Amino acid sequence: MTQVLLFNCPNRHWLHFARPLHVVATRSIDGVVKSLRLIEELVNRERLFAAGFISYEAASAFDRALTTHPLTDFPLLWFGLFRKPQIVPEPTAVAEPTYRLGEWQPTVNRNEYRERFDAIKRAIA
């Protein structure tokens, strides 16, 4: 079952979205803005709630000058469109995780990291 759990900061409670009426997703740059327009249309027409994400790698859909990492099979955009969410208590930790992460390995050494970090600071300045 597709579910989304979000924290509503202004009201300080958790929202549980379950069983989307529609799912809008794309893995193509050209599909990002089209998908957002479709989501907006469905939300307004059917009075739905949209819960999901736009990945960082979707940036060039809004400005072709922005470059990101090469695209993978991960969606650039994924939203479920739901009826009104249920307010739920704060989630608790899962007693026994159903997945494991392997050893984390950096993809750059300390000097490369420092150079890239300094380049970002210069670009911001």
Structure report:
Helices cover 26% and strands 26% of the residues. By secondary structure, the protein is of the alpha+beta class. It has a three-stranded antiparallel β-sheet, with no helix packed on it. Strands 3-5-4 form a three-stranded antiparallel β-sheet, with helices on one face. The chain is extended, with a radius of gyration of 19 Å. It starts with a strand and ends with a helix.
Taking pLDDT < 50 over at least 5 consecutive residues as the criterion, the unreliable ranges are none
Number of strands: 6
Proportion of residues in helical segments: 25-40%
Radius of gyration: 19 Å
Main sheet: strand order: 1-2-6
Portion in strands: 25-35%
Euclidean distance between termini CA atoms: 46 Å
What is the residue-averaged pLDDT?
Answer: 90
Specify the number of helices. Answer: 2
What is the compact description of this entry?
With 125 residues, this protein is of the alpha+beta class. It has two helices and six strands; from the N terminus they run E-E-E-H-E-E-E-H.
Q: How does the SSE layout of this entry go?
A:
Elements: E1 3-8, E2 13-18, E3 22-26, H1 29-46, E4 49-54, E5 77-82, E6 86-88, H2 110-124
Antiparallel strand pairs: 1-2, 2-6, 3-5, 4-5
Features:
extended; 125 residues; 26% strand; 3-stranded antiparallel beta sheet
